[in-house]
Every structure is written in C-alpha cells, then in structure tokens.
Amino acid sequence: MARGYPTHIQRAFDELRFGDGRTLNLRQWLPSGDEARAWVERWLRAKQIERAGEVLVITGRGNNSEGGAPVVRTAVLALFPSLRRRHVIQGWQEHTPGSFVVTLAPVHALFEVPKRRRERGSTPVAPESLSALEPDTLSLLRRLASASLAVLGVHEIDRFLESEMLAQFAALAASVDEYDDRDAALRTAIRNALDELDETE
Question: Could you tell me the pTM of the whole model?
C-alpha cells in the first residue's frame, strides 16, 4: 500500500512509475459498476498481451456516489478474483484508498485456463476455421501451437496442431477486442507468448 504522501506528491510518484500507458483512471468517466467491470477487464486483457507487468487502476473512493457507497471500487474489486482464476492477472493490492496496483499474468498463462469452469464473460471464441486470419498471423499461431505442444512433451505434434491452434486462438481472442487492427494485436500477443516460452526453456 502507498505511504501517506500528500495527494499531489503521490500523483507525481504514480506518474513516474506507471505513466499514462499503464494507468486506467475510471474516475474521469464515472461509469456504473457493470460498465467499470467490463472496461477494466478489456483494458487489463489488452495490457496483458502488451506484457505491461504492473498497472494502476484508479477507481476513486466512491465519495461522490449516491449514498457514499463505493460502487465502482466494489465492482472492480469483485472482478479481480475471477481474472486471477482465468490467468489474466496474478494479483492486486490496494495502492491508495481509491486505487489498486495490479500485477498481470504472462501471456502464455492464458492457455492454462481450466476448461471445466465457465465464468460469466469467459465463453471461448473458437471458429470453425482459422482460414480467415492473415497468412502472417496464421503462421505465427502455428509456431506458437507447435512450441506449446513441444513444451508439453507431445511427440505427434502434427496430429494435435490444429486443435491446439484453435484453443490458443480462443484464449487470445478476448484480449484483442480492444484494438482496431485485431490481426496486428493478435500477432503481437502471439509473439509475446513465444518470447515467454523461449524465456522459460
């Protein structure tokens, strides 16, 4: 948790540590609880595939909410355990009474999501065919699937390659919805996952 610095000094420290690119300030939009949950999940998924590491989510304390109840803060805090179970984040901690530092999970952790559990908003997107993807994206996805199967010790890689590609596409698809060029974002996510696999070998 942050030390008891005056607000303007705390803000300066946060700007140095996180900057605009790794800070989501919900206070400036005044969303409802449901809007905040959806916004935070999309943003954290996007930051995960960018390998942003730690990010700052500013919810505010709820002082201006009806009845003084911290609606946005409560909704976001309730979302974190679900995102941890789905391997989007590794953890979170209160930074100030109106903000949280969130540690993102590595990209390849998305492929470890337990299939036996289905949570609201986590329905996988598995197309019948990946042929609609750009050739470069398809090639990268094939490399990632091959590398993942090799790490798992699978010997007959060709036999399981297509199903692994579909599974990995489904795991990454929800994280690229935030981008205008989804193919480019998907390629970035795949490259980052490949880099992480290389680092673990």
Answer: 0.79
